[in-house]
Design brief:
The complex is a heterodimer of chains A (387) and B (338). By secondary structure, chain A is of the alpha+beta class. Chain A is built from 10 helices and 21 strands. Chain A has helices at 52-60, 82-85, 102-113, 118-131, 147-159, 177-194, 205-211, 229-234, 239-244, 272-277, and strands spanning 11-22, 26-37, 41-45, 67-72, 75-76, 87-90, 165-169, 197-202, 214-219, 222-227, 251-257, 261-263, 267-269, 283-288, 294-295, 305-315, 319-326, 331-337, 347-351, 358-361, 367-369. In chain A, α3 packs parallel to α5. With 338 residues, chain B is mainly α. Chain B folds into 3 domains: 4-64, no CATH class; 69-115, no CATH class; 120-335, MetI-like fold (Orthogonal Bundle). In chain B, 61% of the residues lie in helices and 2% in strands. In chain B, β1 (4-6) and β2 (12-14) form a beta hairpin. Chain B is flat. Classes of the chains: A alpha+beta (387), B mainly alpha (338). Chain A binds chain B through residues 57, 60-62, 81-83, 87-89, 91-99, 108-109, 112-113, 141-150, 157, 174, and chain B through 226, 228-229, 231-238, 242, 246-247, 250-251, 331-338.
């Protein structure tokens, strides 16, 4: 399956200022510029209706952009048929042809687009079926298969044509949680094995964080940030990305900038660093990740410590989320290890450490300051294999 | 099935709200019918008021018991079925009686003596020709209707074009016009085009008149098929027509079967247009005109009319049985999430 003879790292798939407007009034995609290197997996993530599926359909050639250009391997594909773009697509509902067996489903594209002999088609279908472990299902129709099996057949139909660009539109959202985790890993492995340029659309940030080489966060038809998953998490470009990436969402409080403190529902003391970052901005939004909030009901007060009442405690296994309403009104979620020693309606002190604070311009949403990334040293390192 | 029970003291108890004297709600208020039908809520007046009401409650219990209700429902079914089946049985029975036996008293559905003379009579009068003509007109008519309405419904369901909604409205509006109302102008048009006394003229009329409704019906079926199937087909290299032909036609087959059966019944037995267009061209006459002839020629020869009707019904029954397996719902369901 090594179709890439040249190993250049130039842009393979490019979207240049792509916009899509329906009926002259409804804007689905406003301005999307993206570029993918050959073999890269880019995750396009965003809430429902942000234009990510429309973007994918434009890459596929199912819809034409109103303005802008789409290039594959250097040449514009706008106006060409999907078939001519040599792309493959997997849909959320799989869209298998209901009256055809798995074998016919996988082989259909080859029959329609090539003049390969039946023997070669059968050979390629079987080889793909083996890769995806669906050989036993080849004579079954979609209604005889489980969701996971349909998913595999849909993947088979996509890869059998040896596409140069692979598009996946929320392929896992119809699967149950266990199967989803398993298929996520399998799709990643498959993508690496095939080394095919891939755009993966999802609204699930776990998929976005774990799958992509890079993540493009989309909102209201506009790209908010294109970066590695960790950069989107640690250095979100704006408030939208800060709120969208990370579970639970980042805590935010908007306040007036009074140089050495931020005054809003709570009064937050600004360190020199924060004050410098906020210089010249009238209103700022102070953001802090739940895992950076500390809940200390019985220790001495420090700076940036606030009184609050516990609303709800959500244990999720190895850690718990403590939802607190601070005096002054803002809600803060803290992620703590294990099970906390507080219970609901307890009054506690919550510390929002200044060295973990993100700062945003409240008007534009643009990021002004990010804290240092947390250390990743956990003693985990690969075992030397003697090569 | 819930009735208000009028108590002797004039008060009204709603059976749904009836409580036992101890204040608990009666359990049997939730009686479910064994055939899976609607929940029956038996009438239960408060028994604590006086003995007459107590007796009434006992009566209501008997009336409301599932067995009695079931029996009543099935009786209703039986009467309804008999209402529709009896005329058919009468026609079959009438066609098999010897001459003069039709109005004998007392009436018996099973004739004492079976005679096929009425069938001989209608076949001698040209039944084979009528059957042949009806078959030709129906096959061409239904074929034409499907040939126009399938692509049209696909386009209305899938293509975004200016005036789509308006055009759909116009299509529906044409369906509202009864052909009988416009029969005079239709006759003039047919005459001008030289299509009177031709099968082509009749087939064209059927296609024109039945297509709008068929488009609407089929569009509904196309709408239930996820657009992703079209997308997948286009990515697999199909153009629009190939998408329709290879991918959508099978999932929409139950809809096509419905349209085919519906129009077959309509065109097979259609009389007014056939009589108007074909006129006196007797070699082109269809079965409905054939049946009518026994009224004209022999002064209501009921046995012949019955025999011709029975022969005319049979092909429809065959078509229905042939197509009914396509009614088995949604081939398309398998393509969606498992």
């Amino acid at each position: 399956m090594s179709r890439h003879d040249n190993t250049t790292t130039e842009e393979y798939l490019e979207l240049v200022a792509v916009a899509k407007t329906y009926g002259g009034t409804t804007t689905a995609v406003e301005d999307v510029t993206l570029s993918l290197e050959e073999g890269e997996l880019l995750v396009l993530v965003g809430p429902s209706g942000c234009g990510k599926s429309t973007t994918l359909r434009m890459i596929a050639g199912l819809e034409d952009p109103t303005t802008g250009d789409i290039r594959i391997d250097g040449s514009s594909v706008v106006g060409t048929e999907p078939e001519a773009r040599n792309i493959a697509m997997v849909f959320q509902n799989y869209a298998l042809y209901p009256h055809m067996t798995a074998r016919e489903n996988i082989g259909f594209g080859l029959r329609m687009t090539t003049d390969l002999s039946e023997d070669i088609v059968a050979e390629r279908v079987e080889s793909v079926a083996e890769t995806l472990d669906v050989t036993d299902l080849l004579e079954d129709t979609p209604d005889e298969m489980s969701g996971g099996q349909q998913q595999r057949v849909a993947l088979g139909r996509a890869i059998v044509r040896d596409p140069s660009v692979f598009l996946l539109d929320e392929p896992l959202s119809n699967l149950d949680a266990t199967l989803r985790a398993q298929m996520r890993t399998e799709i990643q492995q498959l993508q690496r094995e095939l080394d095919v340029t891939t755009v993966y659309v999802t609204h699930d940030q776990t998929e976005a964080m774990t799958m992509g080489d890079r993540v493009a966060v989309l909102s209201d038809g506009q790209i908010q940030q294109v970066d590695t998953p960790l950069a989107c998490y640690y250095e979100p470009a704006n408030l939208f990305v800060a709120g969208f990436v990370g579970e639970p969402s980042m805590n935010t409080v908007t306040a007036r900038n009074e140089r050495n403190r931020f005054v809003g529902p709570i009064e937050y003391p600004a360190t020199t660093q924060l004050a410098e970052a906020a210089d010249g901005v009238e209103r700022v939004t102070v953001g802090i990740r739940p895992e950076d909030v500390s809940v200390r009901p019985d220790e001495e007060a420090e700076t940036a410590t606030f009184l609050g009442t516990v609303d709800v405690i959500e244990p999720v296994g190895e850690r718990s989320f403590v939802h607190v309403t601070l005096e002054g009104g803002p809600h803060v979620t803290a992620a703590v290890d294990g099970t906390p020693r507080v219970s609901e309606l307890d009054r506690i002190e919550v510390r929002l450490p200044p060295d973990r604070v993100h700062l945003f311009d409240a008007e534009t949403g643009e990021a002004l300051h990010h804290p240092q990334r947390r250390s990743t040293a956990t003693g985990l390192h690969p075992v030397a294999d003697g090569e | 099935m819930t009735h208000d029970t009028h108590r002797p003291d004039g008060a009204t108890t709603d059976s749904a709200d009836t409580h036992q004297s101890d204040g608990t709600t009666t359990d049997s208020a939730d009686t479910h019918r064994s055939d899976g039908g609607a929940t029956i809520e038996p009438e239960r007046p408060d028994p604590s008021t006086d003995t007459a009401v107590g007796r009434l409650e006992k009566f209501a219990d008997t009336v409301g018991s599932p067995v009695v209700v079931d029996a009543a429902v099935y009786l209703l079914y039986a009467v309804s079925v008999a209402f529709f089946v009896f005329p058919v049985l009468w026609v079959v029975s009438a066609s098999l009686r010897p001459a003069g036996e039709l109005f004998s008293y007392p009436f018996r559905l099973l004739p004492p003596e079976v005679s096929l003379s009425a069938y001989r009579q209608v076949f001698d009068a040209g039944m084979v020709t009528w059957l042949f003509n009806s078959t030709v007109v129906t096959v061409l008519g239904v074929g034409g209707i499907l040939a126009v309405s399938i692509p049209a419904a696909y386009a209305f369901s899938r293509f975004e074009f200016r005036g789509r909604r308006g055009l759909l409205g116009v299509v529906l509006m044409f369906q509202m016009i009864s052909p009988v109302i416009i029969i005079v102008p239709l006759y003039t048009v047919m005459s001008t085009l030289g299509l009177l006394r031709t099968r082509a003229g009749l087939v064209l009329l059927y296609v024109g008149i039945q297509t709008p409704f068929s488009i609407w019906l089929l569009k509904g079926y196309f709408d239930t098929i996820p657009t992703e199937l079209d997308y997948a087909a286009r990515i697999d290299g199909c153009n629009r027509l190939q998408t329709l032909r290879y991918v959508l036609l099978r999932p929409v087959a139950p809809g096509i079967a419905v349209v085919a059966i519906f129009n077959t019944v309509l065109t097979w037995s259609e009389f007014v247009l056939a009589f108007t267009v074909l006129r006196s061209e007797s070699r082109l006459h269809t079965i409905s005109i054939g049946v009518y002839k026994f009224q004209g020629q022999y002064g209501n020869d009921w046995r012949a009319i019955a025999a011709a009707s029975v022969v005319g019904m049979l092909p429809l029954i065959v078509v229905f049985l042939g197509l009914q397996r396509y009614f088995v719902k949604g081939l398309v369901e398998g393509s969606l999430k498992g």
